[in-house]
Amino acid sequence: MTSMARLRTFIAIDLGKPIRARCLALQETLARGGAEVKWVEEENLHLTLLFLGEVEDRDLPALCQAVSDCCIQHNPFTLSVETVGCFPNPRRPRVVWAGVGAGHAQVCALHDALEPPLLALGCYRREERIYTPHITLGRVKSERSTAALALALARQAKWHGGETEVREVRVLSSELTPQGPVYTVLSRAKLHS
What we know:
- This protein is α+β, with helices and mostly antiparallel strands.
- It is 28% helix and 39% strand.
- The chain has four helices and nine strands, in the order E-H-E-E-H-E-E-H-E-H-E-E-E.
- It has a five-stranded antiparallel beta sheet.
């Protein structure tokens, strides 16, 4: 009996190079505060719609088709990346993020539309927390210097990362390596044109 290959899988929106470059500059500014944060590599910055976890490779064609069928029912839209913050709160930061301005409603609508078909396929388990569109910039490794990080975040309250036109959604795999995750695009689902 052969075992099925399993891929750590998620569905995301690509931000484009200009926004990723601005996010990188923001990371560099925030890093000067000295907090111990593992910053996300520039090429890995994205907006996650759904994290699926381990998916068997035999389920990928149906998964990718379901994503495509869903996305074709949504129009392209403008997405702006703006504001910064941290989860769960500035006193106990664990995740440093950039937020979504324009396009917030469309991102949430895509997320909500993708859930039912993926739940039906058994490829996804609904998360308990409410979906909050964001770009993870980094993960806090230690509580040391988090006060400085909170101050640096407050100074960037009016930060704006730019805008991009969202025309597709990607299904990606994530291979965890000692150097960090390696993402591979498994499929691209076009929005209605």
